[in-house]
Amino acid sequence: MSEPKIPFSAKMWFAWGQSCTYWGNRTLSKQLYRWAFNAYTRAQTYAPWWGMPVLRRAVIRGRELDDYAGAVRDFGDLIKLEPEWAEPYLQRGILHSFHGLHAAARAIADFDQFLKLAPATHSWRVDAERLTERLREELQERGWSESTE
Fold first, then answer.
1. Would you tell me which CATH number, out of the four given (1.25.40.10, 3.30.420.10, 3.40.50.1380, 3.40.50.300), belongs to the domain 7-83?
2. Domain assignments of the chain as residue spans, ordered by start
3. Which of 26, 37, 42, 124 is the most interior residue, by most CB within 10 Å?
4. What pLDDT is attached to residue 142?
5. How far, in Å, CA of 65 to CA of 58, rounded?
6. What pLDDT is recorded for position 147?
7. Exposed (0-12), middle (13-18) or buried (19+): which is 46, by Cβ within 10 Å?
């Protein structure tokens, strides 16, 4: 069975989102990030099975628009849509890792799942291993377990 064809309108909205993200990164403009978020949302409405707009939207939402809960929700939806895709676990793990030790166990779980699914050649593999080790050490130093939330 082949993948459904991505409509041109979805591709165009995605491309607009990528452009807004690029210029948002260059200028640090929150407005450009909001436009990117909206463009990725529009792309996803034209191709609900296509995970890439949801991934990019979640990254923008969590990293640039400071909407941690919304980004986690987007990543969760994406993981339900494509549970064998390693990238959402990596991105959600990174997001969790920057939200204190209370989120460390969730970051570790996501990094572990990423490492299970990602190919050995993935460019972030070594970093994910290092981050997981560092988070485990920090939890251990403070007497927390990975199940402590």
1. 1.25.40.10
2. 7-83, 102-149
3. 37
4. 83
5. 10
6. 61
7. middle
